[in-house]
Amino acid sequence: MKNTFISVEGPIGVGKTTLTNILAKHLDSFALKEIVEDNPYLKSFYENVEEYAFQTEMFFLCNRIKQLEDVQKKYLDRGLSVVSDYNIIKNLVFAGLNLQNGKFQKYRQVYAILADQLPQSDIIIYLYGDTDLLMKRIEMRDRPFERNMSRDYIDRLNREYQHYFDPCSLKHYFGTKIPKVISINVNHRDFVNCPQDVAYVLKEIQRVHEVSTSSQEVQSC
């Protein structure tokens, strides 16, 4: 597939980067990965969410916008494909969870302005799983800034993602271009050790891509 932008999304610990690396290799695409550790507010945020939420979310927004602008110029505009371990919509997911309503409304206005001209994903692979599984994976990877993360926070984040990726919600958050969404429950999936699980995702991507291409051909006639 040429000039296709695929994003892998889902809550913390669901396996986004792992699947992104695997798909990028299989699809001969550039793997775009979000920069997390460089956020200077992140450690303070997990220690005091209310105090540092706005600074943390604004840093992530500006950082991801720059990444997406660069990937547009270097890859998508040249007809190359990209697999990303995030979609820009995650900024709204986390901001909606972490910001008080007044600040969230201001943040959403800024988001709408800045995100309007960014490249939009053709396909989003939405990964989801039980909160207990996410907590286990977070513990196993043992990132320093995630050590104080509570189960309650991950559970609320999990439910926030479920809201945003509910089929009835998509049109409210993705503007004029609503991506094709492939939802995958990871509770019984192992993309590292089970080739059949990877094959399933690749088959779903191909199916969705073919349907999307056919629709575009019909509309152009």
TrEMBL record:
<keyword id="KW-0808">Transferase</keyword>
<keyword id="KW-0067">ATP-binding</keyword>
<dbReference type="InterPro" id="IPR027417">
    <property type="entry name" value="P-loop_NTPase"/>
</dbReference>
<feature type="domain" description="Deoxynucleoside kinase">
    <location>
        <begin position="6"/>
        <end position="207"/>
    </location>
</feature>
<dbReference type="InterPro" id="IPR002624">
    <property type="entry name" value="DCK/DGK"/>
</dbReference>
<feature type="binding site">
    <location>
        <begin position="137"/>
        <end position="141"/>
    </location>
    <ligand>
        <name>ATP</name>
    </ligand>
</feature>
<dbReference type="InterPro" id="IPR031314">
    <property type="entry name" value="DNK_dom"/>
</dbReference>
<feature type="binding site">
    <location>
        <begin position="10"/>
        <end position="18"/>
    </location>
    <ligand>
        <name>ATP</name>
    </ligand>
</feature>
<keyword id="KW-0418">Kinase</keyword>
<dbReference type="GO" id="GO:0019136">
    <property type="term" value="F:deoxynucleoside kinase activity"/>
</dbReference>
<keyword id="KW-0547">Nucleotide-binding</keyword>
<dbReference type="Pfam" id="PF01712">
    <property type="entry name" value="dNK"/>
</dbReference>
<dbReference type="GO" id="GO:0005524">
    <property type="term" value="F:ATP binding"/>
</dbReference>
<dbReference type="InterPro" id="IPR050566">
    <property type="entry name" value="Deoxyribonucleoside_kinase"/>
</dbReference>
<protein>
    <submittedName>
        <fullName>Deoxyguanosine kinase</fullName>
    </submittedName>
</protein>
<dbReference type="GO" id="GO:0005737">
    <property type="term" value="C:cytoplasm"/>
</dbReference>
